[in-house]
Amino acid sequence: LRGSKSFTAALAAEAERNGHGLAYKSVSVGHLEAAPLSPSRLSLGRASSTATSTAAPEQSRPRDYLLLAMFSCFCPVWPINIVGLVFSIMSRNSGQQGDMDGARRLGRMARLLSIVSIILGTIIIVLYIALSVRGNISF
């Protein structure tokens, strides 16, 4: 290896030893190959404030489907609808803590479990009424 201010390319055997399949590319110190990922990393100095002043627009709080989950608790599929209610409460808590992606994901799961609970509950109620009218079920 030379004693210069540049990174040297790794050999293929060294690339396999360190767990990577790709060899490193030679880059001199201080130069970036790829564009920065965020606007705040465009400049390391104080050259421009326009790159750092563009903030992401404020996202609205995602829905937690708490009313739907509470309504689904009246259906006779209690393990599913209770879990949907728990996911809904977790979604509300995540939204209040600022984790919008987690709140959105938990809200979707709460909605799915609540809808499944309502559909299965409706099927169970309809089957119970249909069988009790025919006289096959007596309680």
Automatic annotation (TrEMBL):
Transmembrane segments: 65-89, 110-131
UniProt keyword annotation of Cell division present: no
InterPro entries reported in the protein's UniProt record: CD225/Dispanin, CD225/Dispanin_fam
Pfam families membership: CD225 (PF04505)
A GO cellular component entry from the record: membrane
Family the UniProt entry places it in: Belongs to the CD225/Dispanin family.
Descriptive protein name: TUSC5 protein
